[in-house]
Amino acid sequence: MKKLIILLIFTICATVSAQEIGIRLGSFYKSNVAIDGIVNFEDNTRLHGNITFGDGIGADLLYDFTVEKLAIEKLDFQYYFGMGLSTFIGDPFTLGINGETGIEYLFKKTPITIGVDWRPQVNILTKTSLEILQFGFNVRYRINEL
Predict the structure, then answer these.
(1) Which residues form the domain of 122?
(2) Does 3 fall in a domain?
(3) Which strand (E) or helix (H) includes residue 113?
């Protein structure tokens, strides 16, 4: 079992090209600040996760199936689309499905990424609802770059 876990970790690390960690400001459950993290893969996809603490614990884990550079010469903008799961463990418990679309700028001379995103959400449990006005501003540090 231990060898299988080590092999799995090695396989994941071999396919990962860069990681990012930072904060997300905006609408996020009962808080306005979340820890934001990204694991990029070589095939222009990534996992994008957030976690927040407050009156409970909120977490999103999204799979961005499209991460592409914009065709703007000399600027490092990229856009992304994805979807995933969302939960809030508190009062009331919430489980939902998120969509995600956003645009971000990757600074060339410093390993910082800033971006904005929109995350509509369909809550399935405890109360079925649709949250459309969920926007965020992200600031992340790109690990192992430059």
Answers:
(1) 18-143
(2) no
(3) strand 112-118
Cis check: omega of the bond before 126, within 30 degrees of 0? yes
| Lookup result for tokens 């990757």 | 106
| Rounded alpha-carbon distances, angstroms, from residue 118 to 5, 65, 98, 109 | 35, 15, 10, 27
Residue 13 lies in a domain: no
| Ramachandran angles phi, psi of 82, nearest 5° | -170, -175
Q: How distant, in Å, are the alpha carbons of 5, 78, 112, 146 from that of 106?
A: 33, 8, 6, 12
Query: What is the per-residue pLDDT across 3-15, written as a single tens digit (0 to 9) for each?
Result: 544 544 455 444 4
**What pairing do the DSSP bridges indicate for beta strands 77-89 and 46-53?**
unpaired
Number of Cβ within 10 Å of residue 82's Cβ equals 21
Is residue 43 assigned to a domain? Answer: yes
Task: Give the residue from 96, 80, 105 showing the smallest Cα distance to 129.
Answer: 96
Nearest C-alpha neighbor of 119 from the set 19, 27, 22: 27
CATH number at 127 reads: 2.40.160
pLDDT confidence band for 31 (50 / 70 / 90): confident
CA atoms within 13 A on the CB side of 91: 1
Q: What is the 8-class DSSP label of residue 30?
A: T
